[in-house]
Amino acid sequence: MSGWVEICTVEDVPRLEGRRVVVNGFYVAIFNTEEGFFAIGEVCPHMGGPLSDGDVAATTVSCPLHARKIELRTGEVQNDDLSRVLTFPVKVENGKVLMDAGVLYTQPEIKEEGQDKEEDVA
Amino acid sequence: MSDKLKIVVVGNGNAGAALVDSLLAKDSEGIEITLYGDEEVGTYDRIRLSEYMAGMVNLEDLGMRSDDWYEERNVNFRRGVHLEKVDIKEQKVKGTDDEWVEYDRLIFATGSSSAVPPIEGRDKKGVFVFRTVRDVEDMLEAAPKKAVVIGGGLLGLEAAYGLITHGSEVTVLQLSGHLMDQQLDPPAGRMLKKEMEKMGINVRVEADTEEILGNGRVQGLRLKSGEYLTTDMVVICTGIKPNSQLAGNAGIRANRGILVNEHMETTAENVYAVGECTEFNGQLIGLVAPALEQVRVVVDTILGERETSYKGSGAATSLKVMGIDLLSAGNAYGRDEGCEAIISANPLEGVYRKAVVRDGKVVGTVLLGDVSAGPQLIEAVKRAMPAEEVANLVIGNVDASEIGSASLPDEAQVCDCNGISKGQIVATIQDLGLKKVSEVVQETTAGNSCGSCKPLVGQILEETAEEVEEDKNYVCKCMELMADDVKEIVRERGLKSVSEVGEACGAGKVCPDCKPALTYIVASTNANRHKEERHARMINDRVHGNIQNDGTFSIVPRSYGGVTSPEQLRKVADVAEKYNARMIKITGSQRLDILGVKKEDLPKAWEDLDMPSGFAYTKAFRQVKSCVGTEFCRFGVGDSTNLAIDLEKAFENLYTPAKVKMGCSGCPRNCAEASVKDIGAIAIEGGWQIYVGGAAGMEVRKGDVIATVETKEEAQDVMTAFMQYYRENGHPKERTYDFVPRIGLDNIKAVVLDEDSGEPERLRKRLREAKEATSDPWLERRTNMTKNQFAGEISRI
């Protein structure tokens, strides 16, 4: 299922930097690189660092906490044996950045805390 | 009934513990060990007690072993049991647990006790010895304002050092005319005294204590000279006496120590002794190295071939914790007839080298201030090498690095920290075909602890490997560019930004690792009149806070010289509450750290604080730690607080190759720890001593005194000139403790101190010029530098 959503304008993310967006409750990191925009999961698989605060060059980002280097096109961690980071298709149209967030909408709804507790009791 | 060899070990100190290890390593199946240890705690590394006392290590680091450890290895450890009876005829022993245990082999490793001379008043409260973990803990708990250490040997100096690190005012009393008189000759002892005094430890020689005074607890002490000293604590470190009584009572021959032969056998059959409880050829030992050698010998005697033999102590001593380079081995005095000495001394720089020679052979050595020739000289002592082979080394005609490692035999220990011999290093280089020092360090572990043997490792590599590759310190690994290459490109082509550097040479284009370093080069080469690009700085410098493990940031505002005010404290408290900070921490550099603030709250928090950034998050000038100097302190001789404030105002907002921490102390007690800062000033009577290249972090290095000047203004001038010299010549990420040795103190002095040349003033001018183009980065809260600079998230969908 595809689900293109507009997440920001091209000016919102400075060149060679990243910023965080929240889509359906999920943190996504969006990067403005010389090869175009990329969107990947925000959380570093190493120790949870915020990848949108990382350092960008070519099509990689280095996590700001412990410098795990992630290839933005594939989500692969280049310098450690860790699981891949989720990647999302991105396109730019009329100065807007769009991302295919379909996979994020296939997740179950987040229930209110109160409901959760009742279920637990039941 | 088991047919295993029953071994009873008495004593669980360094020797006892090493003995158990070695026995198990040799034959864990065929033996059954019973171990008596009368301290309540398990074994620990007693030689590191001083580090424990100085707070450098904790109990686990001392190698404390749990009951499980013994259980897993089938060692019957009788903790806290004191051995009372030994029956050498029936071959059995009985301890305070009242149980007879039979043995096939009995090994005494009962160690030694502090020898307390019969000084009147030695039983008063507040009188300590320095021997066990318990002693250390009791001393620290007493936290004396003033302490007197009786005994200026190795142990006494270490106790003194431990006490000053806890803020006590310490005086060491030495009976003879110089410190460490067992290991050092008088000139070296006198130089050591000077070094100790620089650290703030008072030393009195030829001081004979007559009586410890006080009503029930220590209040003072009277010397035989009639002089009176006030003190809250007395620590007696006058020597040790072997614990040989138990063996003596059992009919084993003991003199001062238990008599042993070269196989560590006592006069009783199947009974052995090792360590400080022994006496060999009239020689007692008080150091761990010979004890460990004895352990190796006794294991071979009992479980092996009985081929190795102990030849007596030629052991080397070095000061462990105090940052003093000192080494002595073998016969350091050379007082005996027929001894001659090769000596070179430069008391001005605190360097002293000596080799004691008998019949043309090297029999002892003392090195102070410069121990680079240590490995060669220790080896020369061990093998009684001809004196001419090391004479030039001692005189200083050749550098240790020049004569190379070829003279060292394979068994010579190269890395004392990890116990790696030259032979092991050579074999590893050959087996794996290593070419770089970094590879050798990684594969052998030699040099990965303190690093002091790395030059020697480098020599061995050069002499062993067919091809040696330099460990290049590339600033950009992808393009293999050195910092100087990039500087040259920037300067020659007048580049103003990291992007331009990337276009010019490719650096920073493939991976982001070098971009912060490129930023420093571009900024410093252009006196901060460069084109700032935030993508070329890491997150800390994009939002001017230190990123924490949960993605929040810390805020350390600048408080000049570590001085704050009620108003500032209120603001800090309010900000911490308002933005739900997880913690306020007082940092080691006398500042307040508000931890756990969200990125999006940083601008508001800074606005509320209205204080400038303390730059605690980046490679920049950090702060100047100070004491209260002449303003309050009754010992102050210099206005350290105001010097610190002036310096901090002169250097704030300046980036540097690596972080720069500074300190100003108002007297030689050095409460601001200025001698272990990148740049420091210590007030002395009538002036200031300026230190550079000190550190007390990952590396510990005592700074070098670059100058002694008369006025505060001169002090600031020298520090400013050095600062700019480092900013211009330091490699990115190179701390001053690497920079100063790399350039050489004399070379730095030649530039930074030569006012007649005009260069120091030019350096200061360039620093001021660079400073003019900076501002408080926290003002970006009002005018953001980049779009969405502090946004937590830019959209929510």
C-alpha termini separation of chain B: 78 Å
Percent of residues in beta strands of chain A? 35-45%
Shape of chain A: globular
In terms of DSSP E residues, the strand content of chain B is 15-25%
Major beta sheet of chain B, specifics? 5 strands, parallel
Largest protein-protein interface = A-B, 37 and 30 residues
Structure description:
The complex is a heterodimer of chains A (122) and B (797). In chain A, 11% of the residues lie in helices and 38% in strands. Chain A has 122 residues and is mostly beta strands. In chain A, the strands form three sheets. Chain A has a four-stranded antiparallel sheet with strand order 2-3-4-8, with no helix packed on it. A three-stranded antiparallel sheet of chain A has the order 1-10-9, with no helix packed on it. In chain A, strand 5 (55-57) and strand 6 form a beta hairpin. Chain A is globular and about 30 Å long. By secondary structure, chain B is of the alpha/beta class. Helix content of chain B is 32%, strand content 22%. Chain B has a five-stranded parallel sheet. In chain B, strands 9-16-10-11-12 form a five-stranded parallel sheet. In chain B, strand 38 and strand 39 form a beta hairpin. Chain B starts with a strand and ends with a strand. In chain B, 46% of the residues are buried. Strand 2 (18-23) of chain A pairs parallel with strand 41 (795-796) of chain B, so a sheet runs across the interface.
